[in-house]
Each structure stands twice: as C-alpha cells, then as structure tokens.
Amino acid sequence: MKPLAIALFVLGFLNFASFFAVALFLGGDAINGKIEAGRYYLCSHGRYTEVSQSVFNYSKLHVYSVFITHPLGMLGGLFLYREHQKKKEKPTT
C-alpha cells in the first residue's frame, strides 16, 4: 500500500507543479478563460491571453486532470503521514 501512496503523492505533486508552470508560461488557464467570437483566451488574475484552440483545449484538459490527481495526491500524502505517525507512537524496547 505504501508504494501506491507514494506514487499518488508524487503524481499529484508533479501534475500540479507542471500545470502551475505551464499556466504561468501561457498566461493563464482555460477554466478561467473564455471563448469569444471564435477566439480563445486563457485567463490569470483578470488578464486574458489569446491562444489557439488546441492550446485552449490542452489547458482545459490539464485543469481537469489536476481536479483528479490533486485530491489523489493529498490522499496518498495523508496515508503516508498517518503511517509515519503510527511508527512514532510505537514504544521502543
């Protein structure tokens, strides 16, 4: 079970980190963006950046993947934390 928890934690962390870096590079994400008059915009903090449809679709899919992997990563981290706490509570003889 521990290797699965580690894998989930690492996957969640790496996917979120890559999403954050790509959103910074592109100028935002599609979830906060918009489609207007056939043009595609990513948004970050109220600032819109026009992008191609394929970049917009990629951004949207990456956000959706974060919605899945981030909670799984947190569950993996919680499991690892609880296992660590159990080891600390065991009396040494």
What does it look like?
With 93 residues, this protein is α+β, with helices and mostly antiparallel strands. It has helices at 2-26, 53-89; strands spanning 29-36, 39-44, 47-51. The chain has a 3-stranded antiparallel β-sheet with strand order 1-2-3. The chain starts with a helix and ends with a helix. A hairpin with a 2-residue loop joins strand 2 (39-44) and strand 3 (47-51). Helix 1 runs antiparallel to helix 2 (53-89). The chain has one domain (2-84).
Topology:
Elements: H1 2-26, E1 29-36, E2 39-44, E3 47-51, H2 53-89
Antiparallel strand pairs: 1-2, 2-3
Helix pairs in contact: 1-2
What distinguishing features does this structure have?
3-stranded antiparallel β-sheet, 2 helices, alpha+beta
At a glance:
The chain is an alpha+beta fold. The chain has helices at residues 2-26, 53-89, and strands spanning 29-36, 39-44, 47-51. It has one domain.
- Count of helical segments? 2
Helix content: 55-70%
The number of domains is 1
Overall spatial form? rod-shaped
N- to C-terminal distance:
27 Å
